[in-house]
Specification:
The structure holds 2 protein chains of 2 kinds.
Chain A: E1 13-14, E2 25-31, H1 38-48, H2 54-66, H3 75-78, H4 82-87, E3 94-99, E4 104-109, H5 116-124, E5 129-135, H6 142-153, E6 158-164, H7 173-190, E7 194-199, H8 223-229, H9 235-238, E8 242-244, E9 247-253, E10 263-271, E11 277-278, E12 282-286, E13 291-299, E14 302-304, E15 306-307, E16 312-317, E17 328-330, E18 337-348, E19 359-364, E20 367-380, E21 387-388, E22 399-412, E23 423-427, E24 434-440
Parallel strand pairs in A: 1-14, 2-4, 2-5, 5-6, 6-7
Antiparallel strand pairs in A: 3-4, 8-17, 9-10, 10-16, 11-15, 12-13, 12-17, 13-14, 13-16, 18-22, 18-24, 19-20, 19-23, 20-21, 20-22, 23-24
Helix pairs in contact in A: 6-7
Chain B: H1 16-36, E1 40-43, H2 48-61, E2 69-74, H3 80-92, E3 97-101, H4 102-108, H5 124-135, E4 139-141, E5 158-161, E6 189-192, H6 200-210, E7 221-228, E8 231-234, E9 248-254, E10 265-267, H7 273-282, H8 287-291, H9 301-307
Parallel strand pairs in B: 1-2, 1-4, 2-3, 4-6
Antiparallel strand pairs in B: 5-6, 7-8, 7-9, 9-10
Classes of the chains: A alpha+beta, B alpha/beta.
Amino acid sequence: MNVLAHPSLDTETIELAPNHSPSGLLRFITAGSVDDGKSTLIGRLLYDTGNVAADQLASIQATSQKRGLAAIDWSLLTDGLIAEREQGITIDVAYRYFSTARRKFIIGDAPGHEQYTRNMVTAASSADLAIILVDARKGVITQTRRHAYLAHLLGIRELVLAVNKMDLVDWQPSIYQAIVDEFNAFVGQLGRHHVQAIPLSALNGTNVATHAEAIPWYDGPSLLEHLETIPSRRDADQAPLRLPVQRVVRVMMGNGANDATDVEFRGYQGTLASGHLHVGDEVEVMPSGQRARVTHLNIADRALQKVSADRSVVVSLDREIDISRGDMLSDPIHPPCAIKVITADVCWLSEQPLQAQGRYLIKHTTRTVNALFDDLSYRVDVNTLAHEAVHEKTVMNDILRVRLKLQQPLFVDSYADNRTTGSFIVIDPVSFHTVAAGVII
Amino acid sequence: MTLQSKDLSNLPHPSADHLDLLEAEALFILREVAAECRLPVLLYSGGKDSAVLLHLAYKAFHPERIGFALLHIDTGHNYDEVIAYRDRMAERYDCQLHVRNVEDSIRKGSVRLRHQLESRNAHQSVTLMEAIAEFGFDACLGGARRDEEKARAKERIVSVRDEFGQWEPKNQRPELWSLYNTRVVPGNHVRVFPISNWTELDVWQYIQREDIELPGLYFSHLRDIVRRGDILVPVTHLTPANHGETVETISCRFRTVGDISCTAPVASTATTVADIIAETTQCLLTERGATRLDDRASDGAMEQRKKEGYF
């Protein structure tokens, strides 16, 4: 590495490798309760891929034995807080990591009971895929539908229906098929998804990381096989360019001794929320609407010809335009909407109820604006999906269709089109707590 | 009940793509802190995770110089070569370095030791809080990772601390998408962990890819140790051999480098980053399980320290 006292732009030009699917990283969530075998499934995945270290294993084996359990209690692997272990419950979202020869995985593990909606919404916001666990003996229950709805609401289009405990129903294909049919019928009402159903036994490890020969009637992938091969969220590459500006960089390039040879470097730092950017491309700057061409693309001291979605870059333009944090570089043919009234589905996350007359802050990409709840249209019953009139206070875990009035415009796309420019959080201007999360319709 | 730990025969490939994504996420977080916080500081110990964090800060700001000062809470029980490395890196990256000493907190009486050789590691929290108050920092960037420890798996990337530095695991802000809420009321501050989603292996692969210099202690060297159970305890003036213990000279390296009194080496012949990556992919023990004397005290040791303001 060459760290220079004076920054230099005389660097080699490297073309970043294009993103081949599947990419090296997949984020997924697991939805289900402890009773459905969620912890066991995660434990199995980690163990069968060699991602449980000897000291971790020894520690949970000892605790399981101490509690007089016949089998290993895998929840001990995931429940990390003292209160969780004392009470035998999961309090908060935990993130787990494992990798195989093909991919690195990040699991967002949301607890099944208390504050469920809040936790699942949080974990789902960054996930590419959701595993929805069903107990083969119970079939599709209210909770299953709630999980599928929340995954859908948060824009997850890859679903795995994991029909667990198939060994307890003797691997009967008719039971499995009935669950799959019912689930598909429900999900079909929500919108377009890709559903992969997999019969398995987390406890025995059947069809989790290894192929199950015991199920002659199932010729699909094992769970791990599916996770290793499905494409991750690459649709962001295909969408039009959105680059919210994080910071503006201005430095004098040169040794400072000679005004004639010193030049000012001005660049815009940010992460591509979607699309591609090439040197020479024309971009439209929101909100001014002015256009300019890209002269340089950098990731630190590496100059690039082209960058794709999710990369954090520095962009230089051929013209001096007034650009500051919170502005957005975008595709001039398909720019985002600049709007001061947004319609959104909001999940209330705070123990403090919504103050309908109160002022809130909205953070959207790198821009934070004042907002008022202009209308509370209806509340969604997450179990039945029915729309209810909003009479009572809005409390934690409520999902509402709302209209928000903004003091300044935001540059948005619908969440269905763009998960970054279609999402926002609501911040209480007094406590500064994050009180809600919203997706733009 | 008698499962054996699996042999890691399926070695993860160093996929450039996943390192690029982890890097992009960290650069984004660092820039959010730079843009939104009034006076952020980067906690720098000279360990490998903070070395990666410092390099990421360099990349986040380039071509500007790094916009954060560095803060090291020195327990006074650090290896000389780590301190020399720390000073060299601060100079190379052109960063202002603040050092605050646990020794001074002891002298003032805000840290009280039970005995002279007690580990000062947990006491860093007090000195850290004193430094935060002294400078008025509103954000402390740290190199902690969620895969290190079970309590850390539940911590947010941007984590609010009150004026006592306390972490309240049950009362954390929900963190969605990449919308980080850095705002705090006066007196509170945030701890920010840009490499939360990295594993030990990711860190080593990135060190290799970016050619990041580390203290020599991370590579195998000859050292006097005594064996206590399955832990190798380095023989130093702070951790002398007990009467009757056999001192051996073995080839070993440190997986984590911290306070002398609570960090132990592992037997190793790895002399290069590539060797370490090979060892890491085959290693059957967690990083802290193998080497940390402070986390073995109890299952909730880390959580307890974090609640008391530990980073």
